[in-house]
Design goal:
CATH class of the largest domain: Alpha Beta
Shape: globular
CATH architecture of the largest domain: 3-Layer(aba) Sandwich
Radius of gyration: 23 Å
Largest sheet: 7 strands, parallel
Order of helices and strands: HHEHEHEHEHEHHEHEEHEHEHEEHEHE
Number of domains: 2
CATH superfamily of the largest domain: P-loop containing nucleotide triphosphate hydrolases
Structural class: alpha/beta
Strand content: 15-25%
Amino acid sequence: MRFDEFDLHDEILDAIDYMGFNDATPIQEQAIPLILEHKDLLAVAQTGTGKTAAFILPVLDKIANKKGGDSINTLVIVPTRELALQIDREIQGFSYFLSANSVAIYGGGDGSDWVQQEKALKQKTDIIVATPGKLISHLNVGNIKFDQLEHLILDEADRMLDMGFYEDIQKIVSYLPKKRQTLLFSATMPPKIKMLSKSILNNPEEIIIQLSKPAEKILQAAYLTYDNQKIPLINYLIAQKESYKSILIFTSTKAKVNDIVRGLKNKSYKTDGISSDLEQSDREKVLQSFKSKNTRVLVATDVISRGIDIKDIELIINYDVPGDAEDYVHRIGRTARAESEGVAITLINEQDMFRFKKIEQLIDNEIIKMDVPPEIGKSPKWNPKPEKKYGFRKPKGRSKGKRN
């Protein structure tokens, strides 16, 4: 279905055309008409399927058709500052020919950020895109009034709940008008999402596009490695991919980011790292350098696995197997976007084998596993045994009731 088949405002269609979009994705094709009909919506779709446009385009259409108004029209709540900035940029693109405006509210900056956000909130702002914690800080001091809010949108809702934001979301909702349209977008449908949807949605329509399946154009592979082989293997893989100008390496901990960057620093290409330890301004500089291809290799934690939107990432390397099987899908979803192709390689040590087996079951795909090259050493054998569970058995030789 083409975008010009939707009954959208002409200026919005002009912006879509200017940005080079023609055909709607499945989530857009199903969600846009329902949102235009003022239905509450619970939508499940994986990352990279065009969810942002699915909810922003119909909301902008309503704003464009509304005469006057000097209050906040729409609130979008997201889990991370990266996603807040990404959505804010997309809103600016889609509203290029409209008078609608938006502002991103997030933490992690210096005091001047607070002042700028406070000023923007007290002016007429149509759409607020915010992380829960920072939004509550502004609510607590009375910087925001939502008395005429018409739309509440929760994006990456499952991630927000994983990060412990359930109570924060409920607190924010308590500030909002009961009569509103609420849209909840999630990559997965765990029980806690169903519980949240029942508490904030009113007779919602449901859309489930595709649950936890990587894009078909991602070539997935894995190497069986010992930990001390991982840096040499990454150097080997990158050397074999000279034509790849954009490589993203994911690791599960902030401490490993610096270790990996140091292991690649003596190479002829630029490598940089990003995690929540960096100030927001520094994180934006690192991402911009990677986006402009000045940085060839970016090492990152999962903090940006959903919030980064950079085209033409050719290779994803999972330095370790993610702790949550869903995170694997979001990590490798950074490549093969917009119908392009990409490669995703995961490094699996002995401890991660069972975890990776669970991922294969989740995505219903057995991924090819290879040994490291002979010059790097010998690989462990594939043996995905469950992790041992240790109970609280009383140690032998201790008398009852005594502790050492």
